[in-house]
Every structure is written in C-alpha cells, then in structure tokens.
Design goal:
Largest sheet of chain A: 5 strands, parallel
Low-confidence stretches of chain B: none
Radius of gyration of chain B: 21 Å
CATH class of the largest domain in chain B: Alpha Beta
Shape of chain A: elongated
Largest sheet of chain B: 7 strands, mixed
CATH class of the largest domain in chain A: Alpha Beta
Number of domains of chain A: 2
Largest interface: A-B, 42 and 24 residues
CATH architecture of the largest domain in chain B: Alpha-Beta Complex
Low-confidence stretches of chain A: 319-326
Radius of gyration of chain A: 21 Å
Number of helices of chain A: 14
CATH topology of the largest domain in chain A: Rossmann fold
CATH superfamily of the largest domain in chain B: PurM-like C-terminal domain
Mean pLDDT of chain B: 94
Number of domains of chain B: 2
CATH topology of the largest domain in chain B: Phosphoribosyl-aminoimidazole Synthetase, Chain A, domain 2
Number of strands of chain B: 13
Number of helices of chain B: 9
Oligomer: heterodimer
CATH superfamily of the largest domain in chain A: HypD, alpha/beta domain 2
Mean pLDDT of chain A: 93
CATH architecture of the largest domain in chain A: 3-Layer(aba) Sandwich
Distance between the termini of chain B: 50 Å
Helix content of chain A: 25-40%
Strand order of the largest sheet of chain B: 8-10-7-11-9-12-13
C-alpha cells in the first residue's frame, strides 16, 4: 500500500467542503459560542497549514495551547542540555527540532556552532549506535515528548541496560498531558468550553485519560486525528455533543474520532514499559505555564546509572540548585 | 595516483601533471589550453556574470554529483537571466587524501554537463588543503553569458496578471540529499532533478515567447523564489496548492518528517512568470522536457501593499507561504 493511501481520503476536498457545510449549519443551534482548545501543537499545525479557521462560523474559535513537547520546554532544561553538550568528550543526541528552541544561553544549534557535539536524530535507537561507535565518549540522549514518545525512551533504556552500555545516559524531559489540561482549567477563569484531545498520546495511554477532564469540567472532549478531515469531523462532533448536552441537560462527555488508532485502554505493553522505567516527577516547569505538580516523569532508581541529571549533577550551574528543595 | 596529496596543489610538477592529465584533458578548449594568467574572452554587448560555490554532502547522490551540480548550478543562474552560458571558471579546493578516482568521476560529469549548454571552462585554480580542514572537495564556478535576443528578464519585472508556472515537480534534489544523509536512513527510487536548464530556456527564447522572470528554485525551494519575487516586483502571488506538482516519493518524505515540499531544494527546476497570453505556448515547451510542468498561480496587485505569497487550498482556505526558516529538521509532532 502506498503511503498516500493512508492520508488521501483525509484531505479530500469534497469531504472537507461537506464537513464545512455541516458544521456551519449545525453550529447555528449552539447554545453558546464554542471556544475549543486543541491541546497538542500537532493539531495547531494542522489548523494553520490547512486554513481550517477560515472554514468555521463566527461562533467557533480556537484557543491554542499549551503547545508541543518542544515548545513547552523551559529554558532551564535547554540550559542543562547545553551544559552537558559542552562537557569534554560528550555527544548530546536529541530529536530534530529541539535544537532550534532557545534557552537563556541560546539554542542547541548555536551551541553546536560553538563546538558542542550535538546530533539531531529521528529514531531514538540511533543513540545506541552512536554510543557503540564512540566508546570513549559519554553519549547523552536529551529525551523529550508527551506520552507518545515516552515508550521509545523506556525501550531504549532497557536495551542499553541489557547491552550493559557504560557510556549511555538519558536526560529525561518527558511530560504528561492531563496535568497540563488541569493546570489550564484549574483556576476556573479559562474561557475554554471544549477540548480536542491529542490522539497520538491516546494511542499509548488510551482515551480514558480524558474522561475525567470531560467529567470534572463538564465539557466535551473529542480525541482527534491529525489530518484536516479528522480535525473538521472532530469539530462537528464537539458541536453536536454541545448541542445534545444542552437539549438533554446531560454531561457532554468524551468521544473518539481517531478510532482507527485509539482505544479506551490504549497500548498496555507500552504503558507497562513506561511504568517500569519512569515514575512521576514532583514538579516540572512548562514554558508559558510555569511549574506544574506531577506533570512530568523522571527515571526510576533502578536506572539511576543512566540518569544524566544524577550522573552529571555536579556540572549543572543553573536549575538543579534552585529546584532541589521541591 | 590513488590519492590527492598536498603537492598536487603546490605549483610544481605534480600540480602540472594533475592539471594536464585531468582538467585539461576533460575541459579542453583553445582558450583554456593557452594557459595564460587570465582568459581573454571575445564579447559583444552586455554580458551576464555569476558565481556559486558547491559544498554538497554527500558528494555523490542519486542523479548527480558535485561536479554536475557545479556546472548546472552556474549555467542555470545565467540561463535564468536569459543569457546563453558561454564561459566558466572552475576552482577546486581538495582535501589531502581525496580519492583520485572520485575526482576523475567528478571531472567527467562536469565535462558531460558542459556539453548540454555548450559552455566552456576557460580558466581555473586548484588548491589542496591538509586532511581534516575540508570535507572532501569544494568547487567554485563563475560564469559569463551573452545575450542574443532583446528580452530583459528580472525578478522585479513581474506584472499584476502574470501567470506563474513551474517547469516540473518539486523537491527531488533536497529529498535525495536528505535521504542520503545518515540520520534519516531512508531509501527510494527518487533521483535528483539536477540538470542544465539552458536547452529549455533557449527553446522558449527561440519561439519568441515573452518571459518576464525565470528563477531556478535552489536552496529555499519555491517558497524562497516566490517570496523574493513578491518583494522585488511588489505584487501578491496567488498559488493553488493542488496545481503544484509533487511526486509521491517527495510527498512521502515530507509526510514522514514533517517537511514542506515547497521548502526543499531543487537543482534543475525553475519558476517562470509570463503574461497570460503566453501560458499555452510556454507550457507546450516546458512539457517537451517534463510532463509535470504546471501553471500554479497568478500575480495580482495588492492595494494594501501586502506583497505576500498566498496558498489556496482545494477547499477554499488560504494561508501565507513564508520564507523557510532555520535548518531542515524533522518535526517530532
């Protein structure tokens, strides 16, 4: 099967026009304007790239946020990455676009220009190859991502452990989606009254992680795919859920639009891997949102010998000293 | 000789042998063989003059190598002004230890590519630098072209109402190079579009087709060309996304890594601005060279002075096509 067969139908102009028409008709019955937050930067990208906002009526608007795992990375963590990369005989490995985001001392790309050995990769398993090819150097994987990419880091660490690699480390920056949603909603002042849930996260965690968001804040949540038809269909579902809740005076609830990949329970094997390697971190700072309790993961004691935050603790100038009391 | 040594750039016997056996042998012409300090060029009227340095990694890629690129790149810059490529200079900067066989392959592909336009290398230079101070070989070529027609092509000559055409499908060279790099570990049947564009430009000129602007969409892709034209000609460009030809392979790479095909480099693909009355004749010529040539949009006047590229989706929404920013890196989300 060609790759394009996987997405062509989800970018079909006729379907897009039909969804646009249906949303515009149904939205006339909305009891109040819909203010939708798409939690994930991937959805924001789809909305912008395909010009979806221009297709919607005036009573539907997006409140973008909180962002993607790259753009929510606080400058303190990037500063640590730069400090690690500038250590002698060290290679810092990270996922592609992380190298563009600035810390207080510039970006990892600028650090590379100053001599830091920083290697963008696509597949985290490449870190093991780099570690084996460079036995005299410390190879540090600057791990980032929501629940989507966490299992890859967990497997990477378990394989490194089996292979008894002694020059491989992980600087863990994996963050969690539900605490960020709660942080946005918790003070009661947010105007958001509908959520589009990140679906790649849900492939791993299952859609169940959003049920309590829907229940707690009494608003509709739709777990959406990332193609333009996915997002448009999800908006239609949010409209219909909102109208039905108002008509029947019932909770709007949660639905899965991205049913071709997402189940309620998610990928149980991946969840086990995450749990074996990581535990909840007390607090993590999000760029733009500040410190959020229990919103990230840290490496369990069993794998402490891989934990760059512990192994290289003495080399961090900035963040560790300020936050170790939490 | 198996490897290039520092002595091959030292000005003595070894260098002379390299120049005669390799460079003169393949680039031979009367002006070059005179071996003067400078080439004397017969000219008549105005000339076009351009220079470019080539540092591509890897040096060999599907559909070409740095040698083909070094000729096609400079020749295309001349052709984009409507100038017939005539004379080129050629400077090699070679890393000590570089394979002679590879250098020969590169020179042979330069010779082959020169034949496409008929341009000649009339002067050159060879430097060899210590191992580790340069990545294999870099090549600089400078070119001179002449005009045998009265058309003046310019990035600032695009008028409201002009049609914007593409000579073929986009992004092949950029995709090939990205796939050839270690980090992405991808393979496909895709080959670079690296090619000399003079034959197609020559045919357009010979058929007396009125051209307002041509530009080969190299680094920065068609995004860069279209944005540069908006600013230079003070027009808005309306581009229909569904008319931009992109191969399945290039689209596949973009899907996997989150790239925009519009930002990917090309090395034998040009954007054209022509009056609407010339669209059919221009496309007829372009399609002799590539069936994927397409009319992708039009220039128009913007009353608010908003000189931007606007992409129109097949379902009626619009967005700006901006200049690409930063390195091409895979997005993770």
């Amino acid at each position: 099967m060609d790759l394009k067969e996987l997405y062509q139908g989800f970018r079909d102009p006729l379907i897009m026009k039909a969804l646009t028409k249906k949303i515009n008709i149904n939205a006339k019955q909305l009891p109040h304007p819909l203010k939708v937050m798409e939690v994930c930067g991937g959805h924001t990208h789809t909305i912008m790239k395909y010009g979806l906002m221009q297709l919607l009526p005036e009573n539907i608007e997006f409140i973008h946020g909180p962002g993607c795992p790259v753009c929510i990375m606080p400058k303190e963590r990037i500063d640590q990455a730069i400090e690690l990369a500038m250590l002698p005989d060290t290679i810092l490995v990270t996922l592609g676009d992380m190298i563009r985001v600035p810390g207080s001392k510039g970006t990892l790309a600028q650090c590379r220009a100053r001599g830091g050995d920083i290697r963008p990769i696509y597949d985290p398993m490449d870190t093991l190859v780099i570690a084996k090819e460079n036995p005299t150097k410390s190879v540090i994987y600057f791990a980032i991502g929501f629940e989507t990419t966490t299992p890859m880091t967990a497997v990477l660490m378990q394989v490194a452990d089996q292979q008894k690699l002694s020059n491989f480390y992980v600087h863990c920056n994996h963050v969690l989606v539900p605490p960020a949603i709660n942080a946005v909603m918790s003070d009661g002042r947010a105007k958001i009254n509908a959520f589009i849930g990140p679906s790649h996260v849900s492939v791993i965690t299952g859609a169940k992680i959003y049920q309590c968001v829907a229940d707690k804040y009494n608003l509709p949540v739709v777990v959406a795919g990332f193609e333009p038809v996915d997002v448009m269909q999800s908006i239609l579902m949010l409209v219909d859920l909102t109208i039905a809740a108002a008509q029947h005076d019932s909770p709007p609830g949660m639905s899965i639009q991205y049913s071709r990949a997402v189940s309620m329970e998610g990928n149980l094997i991946a969840q086990t891997k995450i749990n074996e390697v990581f535990e909840i971190r007390d607090v993590f700072r999000w760029r733009g949102l500040g410190d959020i309790a229990n919103s990230a993961l840290k490496i369990r004691d069993k794998y402490a010998h891989f934990d760059a935050e512990i192994v290289f603790k003495a080399h961090f100038f900035t963040w560790f000293s300020k936050t170790k009391s939490v | 000789m198996q490897q290039i040594q520092l002595s091959h750039g030292g000005g003595g016997q070894e260098m002379n042998r390299l120049i005669k056996d390799l460079f003169f042998h393949h680039f031979t012409n009367k002006i070059l063989l005179k071996m003067e300090d400078a080439a004397i060029l017969p000219t008549n009227g105005k000339i076009a003059f351009t220079t470019d340095s080539f540092t591509v990694s890897p040096l060999f890629f599907a559909g070409g190598d740095i040698g083909k690129l070094a000729i096609a790149g400079t020749v295309n810059d001349l052709a984009m002004m409507g100038a017939k490529p005539e004379y080129l200079s050629c400077s090699f900067m070679i890393e000590e230890g570089f394979s002679y066989a590879d250098l020969k392959t590169i020179v042979q592909s330069m010779q082959k590519e020169l034949a496409v336009s008929g341009a000649k290398i009339v002067c050159g230079d060879t430097k060899v630098v210590p191992r580790g101070t340069l990545d294999g070989v870099f090549i600089n070529t400078t070119g001179v072209g002449s005009f045998y027609h009265s058309q003046t092509l310019s990035a600032s000559a695009i008028q409201a109402g002009d049609a914007i055409l593409l000579s073929r499908d986009i992004g092949c060279h950029g995709s090939c190079i990205l796939m050839a790099r270690d980090a992405l570990k991808l393979s496909s049947n895709l080959i670079s579009d690296c090619a000399t564009l003079w034959p197609v430009v020559e045919m357009l000129l010979d058929k007396n087709i009125t051209l307002h602007a041509l530009r080969d969409a190299t680094r920065g892709g068609i995004s860069a060309v279209l944005n540069e034209w908006c600013v230079a000609s003070e027009v808005q460009l309306d581009i229909n996304e569904e008319n931009i030809p992109v191969s399945d392979e290039v689209n596949g790479l973009c899907e996997l890594y989150g790239f925009e095909s519009y930002d990917l480099a090309n090395e034998g693909t040009m954007v054209l601005a022509v009056p609407q009355s010339e669209v059919a004749a221009t496309l007829a010529v372009l399609r002799l060279f590539s069936v994927s040539a397409s009319h992708i949009g039009n220039a128009c006047h913007n009353e608010e002075g908003n000189h931007k590229v606007i992409l129109h989706s097949p379902w009626g929404s619009r967005r700006y096509l901006d200049l690409p920013q930063g390195e091409l890196l895979p997005r993770i989300c």
